[in-house]
Design brief:
alpha+beta; 9 strands; 24% helix; globular
């Protein structure tokens, strides 16, 4: 597997950067390669990416996600060949360091030519720059999803309160 890792510093707090990143459906508004994102289930999205007339669609499962920390994903192809993670770290300046790490295995001779780490790193760096401009331009997130995912399963954001054994009587 080949690995590409890119980091960018975004001049917003960690919570803002993380919250904006969880808004997959608006990625096409600021990322040039992302043409469409559809949410199929809470942990599964279908991404349409492309350059010029060439389009590629693939399903992605979020396997691990912790608010203000990280998000881990993998492709759902028959022979999964893409996986990655995004981490969010506060910096001393009150900004956020966003690191995207992608691992991929090229398939066939054409895949070897089209998935060079140099070219992929350049695209990831460019798209992170678009994210930076977008979120800094807004100054705040346009939405948020604060759930936690472990092993591909969504965990409740707040534990259910214990049920009281004493009946609740109306007051007043």
């Amino acid at each position: 597997m080949r690995t590409v890792e890119e980091t960018i510093e975004v001049s917003v707090p960690v919570g803002t950067a993380y919250n904006q990143w969880t808004q997959f459906k608006i990625f096409p508004r600021f990322m040039s390669m992302v043409k469409r994102v559809d949410q199929i289930r809470p942990t599964v999205t279908v991404w349409t990416i492309g350059f010029g007339p060439v389009r590629r669609e693939y399903a992605v499962e979020t396997t691990d996600q912790v608010p203000d920390s990280h998000l881990v994903w993998r492709s759902l192809e028959r022979h999964p060949c893409r996986q990655g993670d995004v981490t969010f770290r506060p910096t001393a300046a009150g900004s956020t360091a966003v690191t995207v790490r992608m691992r991929f295995a090229p398939r066939g001779p054409l895949g070897t030519l089209t998935t060079s780490p140099w070219a992929t790193g350049r695209v990831v760096r460019s798209e992170l720059g678009h994210f930076k401009k977008f979120v800094e331009g807004l100054g705040e997130e346009s939405g948020a999803w604060r759930g936690t995912i472990r092993n591909g399963h969504v965990r409740p954001t707040e534990p259910e309160p214990p049920r009281s054994r004493v009946p609740c009587w109306p007051v007043g």
